[in-house]
Amino acid sequence: MRLSVSNLTTGYGKAQVLFGLTLEVATGELVALLGANGAGKTTALRTISGLLRPWGGQVWLDETSLQGLSAAQRARRGLGHVPEGRQLFPLMSVEENLRLGAAFLAWPYRQEGLERIYTLFPRLAERRKQVAGTLSGGEQQMLAIGRALMGRPRILMVDEPSLGLSPKLAEEVLSTLAQVKAEGVGVLLVEQNVALSLEVADRGYVVEHGKVVLSGSARELLSNPGVQKAYLAL
Ligand code: ATP
């Protein structure tokens, strides 16, 4: 499956944020979306997932246009989203949070999903009865990713998973995304830590003022002088 975003425009009120964003993510690849604060990365993910209305442009999953579909309908078609700030239910247990991620699936998928998430994140299995609000930051991020995976997405968009985490935990969370990719899911990763994200990504896009100004393999981006200067402090 392939997510294709073509010429997407949107904004808030009169303030335009996306100026014709175009990108693609296929299943089985990990793609980084890079850019300075305010470039429009979060806005892009929210528009693709159906939380924000586009002004123009198109989002496709293979040959199917997602135009006019709600976020829930897009999730059913295979598009997962781990929002910035995790948005967990802090008073509910780990397992209850996970089950909510599969609420729209038939029962056998729900059970199978739990086992898969606990294999991927053994730390969540140990804490399945603990309320989400008392988990560490890294564990909460794993839970947010696990909950999105419970919906069996083919393409998973993840917004700033390392925010507020120690470098070691950030690395752990990003390496689980590499595992998710290895299971055949396409991952679109928005990440402040450009060096770390290009370590796990296959390729990436650099966004400036709401559109893609550069794209290439992770290796090409890492050796690009503009990227080094702007994002890698070299
Ligand atoms: P960051 O890495 O800082 O999160 P970003 O690239 O994800 O940056 P966005 O969060 O998409 O950027 O924000 C793009 C622009 O849209 C910014 O100028 C921001 O102030 C503005 N913006 C974001 N959300 C809203 C909102 N709800 N209402 C009005 N303006 C908004």
From TrEMBL:
Domain of life: Bacteria
ABC transporter domain sequence ranges: 3-234
Keyword Nucleotide-binding annotated: yes
InterPro entries according to UniProt: AAA+_ATPase, ABC_transporter-like_ATP-bd, ABC_transporter-like_CS, BCAA_Transport_ATP-bd_LivF, P-loop_NTPase
GO biological process, one term: L-amino acid transport
Gene Ontology molecular function, alphabetical: ATP binding; ATP hydrolysis activity; branched-chain amino acid transmembrane transporter activity
One protein family per Pfam: ABC_tran
Keywords, comma-separated and alphabetical: Amino-acid transport, ATP-binding, Nucleotide-binding, Transport
PROSITE patterns per UniProt: ABC_TRANSPORTER_1, ABC_TRANSPORTER_2
Alphabetical list of SUPFAM superfamilies matching this protein: P-loop containing nucleoside triphosphate hydrolases
Signal sequence segment: none
Stated family: Belongs to the ABC transporter superfamily.
Protein name as it appears in the record: High-affinity branched-chain amino acid transport ATP-binding protein LivF
UniProt organism field: Meiothermus taiwanensis
